[in-house]
Design brief:
Oligomer: single chain
Distance between the termini: 65 Å
Shape: elongated
Mean pLDDT: 93
Structural class: alpha+beta
Radius of gyration: 27 Å
Number of strands: 20
Largest sheet: 7 strands, antiparallel
Length: about 400
């Protein structure tokens, strides 16, 4: 079950009359509902309020539609919000399949844009806008937000896999634009179109003969690309907490994993199902060091306040332990956050410096950027070179 919302706005002329504007909107909506046969009883007045700056009126229809018209007298802005069970088809089978009733207001996706144009003409305005029909209340929302809180929409075709593991909610979606896409706890993790993510994370380093540790990376993409690198690394160890992620990706996204998740060990790699922190602690106790450590774990928090403290504490611990397990001249490579999340990027730098102080290591930080298709934004990656220990 779901509902739809239509949002329109019109910038009115200097000498507009609020009551005339309201009547034009009401008449046009009733005309649309009646397919040209106007009936003053189609819309029922539910509320009217005249504020100091904004006038508000609400109408309802017999089909459970609610219409709110607001006129900002100072800004000369008319906004129309329409909510209903099924206002118009969207053109997306995934979204429209959730709508059980026949469209109430518009019968083709382009009808809404045409209606906006006719409304602009009737109101005599030059500036107006309309958003695509929003579908709300779906079991899986196609709307995601970027790190700077922009709304983006994924072209979902179907849900191929869905489960709740011991650690998280796992979904694999089939999408038009990105192919098969892994979503963890509602956040996009990786898609078949995101090879640029893995290549940028790898930073085009020379991995010949290297001893490499991957923390996380349950989608298998990084492990697969490292094993395919030339010259080839000496050995790659991957530590992933959730085996359900690996099983789901191996079954539904084989193009991403490239077969590396089919078994836990191979000639040049092994996969450990376990906790990254505990593994690093064990490596530290045993004096085990690596040429490269990849942090392919959780995203850093967008918020830098106390709400993200637990995650920041986890990231800080990972950084400190990793620095202690990397050979001098080796590197810690990780994804950071969206380019637009300035505060989080700065916080990450501070956490790196703090971890380096605790580990008594000199570090150099550099960053690279890449547009990641399924994220629909530019993502930042960090390369941290480990110097000799401080004396």
């Amino acid at each position: 079950m779901s509902a739809q919302t239509v949002l329109m706005d019109f910038v009115l002329q200097e000498n507009f009359d609020p009551s005339s504007c309201e009547q034009i909107v009401k008449d046009m909506l009733e005309g649309q509902l009646a397919k040209g046969e106007k009936d003053s009883n189609i819309l029922k007045l539910e509320m009217r309020h005249s504020g100091h700056l904004v006038d508000t009126v609400m109408y309802s229809s017999q089909e459970d539609m609610m219409i709110m018209i607001r006129i900002d007298k100072m800004e000369k802005l008319l906004t129309i919000n329409i909510d209903g069970p099924h206002l118009a088809p969207t053109g997306s089978q995934f979204k429209d399949n959730n709508l059980k009733k026949k469209a109430q207001l518009f019968h083709h996706p382009n009808d809404l844009v045409k209606f906006e144009g006719l409304m602009s003409s009737q109101l005599g305005v030059d500036r107006s806008g309309v958003l695509p029909v929003l579908v709300r209340g779906m079991e899986l929302s196609p709307y995601w937000t970027t790190t700077d809180d922009r709304i983006v929409e994924c072209s979902i075709k179907s849900v191929l896999h869905q489960e709740i593991s011991e650690y998280q909610k796992i979904q694999i979606l089939d999408t038009i634009d990105f192919g098969r896409t892994l979503v963890l706890d509602g956040q996009v993790n990786l898609s078949e179109a995101d090879l640029i993510y893995t290549r940028t994370l790898m930073n085009y380093e020379e991995y010949g003969g290297a001893d490499i540790l991957i923390l996380g990376g349950g989608d298998g993409a990084l492990l697969s690309q490292l094993l395919a690198a030339e010259p080839s690394p000496g050995h790659v160890t991957m530590v992933e907490l959730d085996p359900a992620v690996m099983t789901a990706v191996a079954m539904h996204m084989p193009a991403v994993a490239g077969g590396v998740l089919d078994s836990l060990d191979g000639a040049r790699h092994d996969i450990i199902v376990g906790d990254a922190v505990k593994h690093l602690e064990r490596c530290r106790e045993e004096g085990k060091q690596f040429d490269f450590v990849f942090g392919d774990l959780t995203d850093i928090p967008i918020d830098t306040d106390k709400d993200g403290k637990d995650v920041w504490d986890f990231i800080s611990r990972i950084l400190e332990l990793s620095f202690l397990c990397i050979k001098p001249g080796g590197k810690y490579l990780t994804h950071v956050t969206g380019k637009a999340a300035s505060a989080s990027k700065q916080m990450f730098r501070e956490k790196v410096k703090e971890a380096a102080r605790k580990a008594e290591k000199d570090v150099e930080i550099s960053v690279t950027e890449a547009f990641v298709p399924s994220f629909m934004e530019v993502w930042v990656f960090a390369q941290i070179t480990i110097g000799p220990g401080k004396k």
